[in-house]
Design a protein that fits this description.
The protein is 36% helix and 13% strand. It has 12 helices and 10 strands. It has helices at residues 13-19, 57-68, 74-77, 83-88, 122-133, 153-166, 185-191, 208-211, 217-230, 248-260, 287-299, 317-332, and strands at 72-73, 93-96, 100-101, 111-112, 137-142, 171-175, 196-198, 235-242, 265-270, 304-307.
Length: 335
């Protein structure tokens, strides 16, 4: 009788570095390894970027539950500035398929190297977290897994199925990699019927070479357009960072491209440099400019827009999903 592999204890980031699992940033053999940047001083953040340190009871309860279920989160791995606020409300973005990515985008704090083995118990653990926490909305994301034949699509499907089984009241949002050169992977995930399909464009096409070298701008757009072709009722979502050297005109053009792909929900947030080995911040965008982008995006037809310095893909995702659903119903005249 087949017995699933018993997952080993999760290694810390330091343990993975010591074992050689995490690659050095100058390893040119890895797919899409980003440019090394000069190690000048970290930029001083303006007052509107400041956030409080996580100290609440809810934060520690969320952390304990995730550790108990041996689940990674993008909140921790990507050093999200909103972790204190979100975890205090028991909102977290679960990151499946390990904590080591096969790519090395120059904006991202997730480590690059030899990926973790796929945990066969992970989908069940994700379902347990949704049930135990009583989540109304869950976000499931992953590292890039170019090493897997399906890019990790099957694990996404299993996670969706387990959440549906164990916590049927929970709405499901997935934030996927681009499934580049993984024929059939997208179709399998869409067939599992998540409520929201999110894939981030991240930046303007002119910056892909240095910021997101392993990805392709028009492939990402086509991926989201293809979701709507397969299932027109599924909500689609994508996000952009600003402050990397893009212009206003380039951001507005990306909005137009997104609307041509029939994307429903746009998030725009300030890029924050994780460490000195990542891309430097070109500028800190003033909150007034974020309001300008929000107004322009709504004028272009998006159902939902979240645009602020601290906006991230999963920030207030549950509340924003409910608003997006209501707005679609309003436009369709559904009571």
């Amino acid at each position: 009788m087949f017995q699933p592999e018993k997952p080993s204890k999760m290694k810390t980031r330091e343990e993975k570095k010591e074992s050689g699992q995490i690659a050095k940033r100058d390893n040119k053999d890895l797919m899409g390894f980003a440019t090394n940047f000069p190690k000048e001083k970290m930029e001083r953040k303006p007052d509107w970027i400041r956030v409080k340190a996580p100290v609440s009871k809810g934060y520690y309860e969320t952390k304990e539950l995730l550790n108990e279920k041996k689940l990674h989160t993008v909140c921790e791995e990507a050093a999200c500035p909103n972790i204190g606020e979100c975890w205090s409300q028991k909102h977290a973005t679960v990151m499946i398929l390990g904590s080591v990515c096969t790519r090395a985008c120059s904006f991202c704090n997730i480590e690059t190297g030899k990926p973790d083995s796929v945990n066969p118990h992970e989908p069940e653990n994700v379902g347990d977290v949704a049930k135990v926490s009583g989540l109304k909305h869950i976000v499931i994301t992953s590292v890039d897994r170019d090493d897997l034949a399906d890019g990790g699509a099957d694990q996404f499907v299993k996670c969706i199925e387990n959440v549906r089984k164990k916590s049927p009241q929970t709405t499901i949002e997935i934030l996927t990699p681009d499934f580049l050169r993984k024929n059939g992977a997208l179709e399998v995930v869409v067939k599992a019927k998540p409520d929201v399909f999110n894939h981030n464009i991240e930046t303007v096409p002119g910056l892909y070479g240095t910021i997101r070298p392993g990805a392709r701008y028009f492939h990402s757009l086509h991926l989201l357009k293809r979701v709507k072709e397969i299932d027109p009722s599924m909500f689609t979502k994508s996000g952009l960072m600003v402050g990397l050297g893009e212009t206003k005109e380039q951001i507005l053009q990306v909005m137009d491209d997104m609307r041509c792909a029939d994307i429903d929900f746009l998030t725009i947030g300030q890029y924050l440099r994780p460490t000195l080995r990542h891309a430097p911040v070109d500028r800190y965008v003033h909150p007034d400019e974020f309001e300008f982008y929000k107004k322009m995006a709504y004028n272009k037809g998006f159902l939902m827009v979240s645009s602020s310095p601290l906006t991230r893909s999963s920030y207030h995702a549950g509340d924003d999903f409910a608003k997006m659903r209501d707005e679609r119903n309003r436009r369709l005249g559904v009571v």
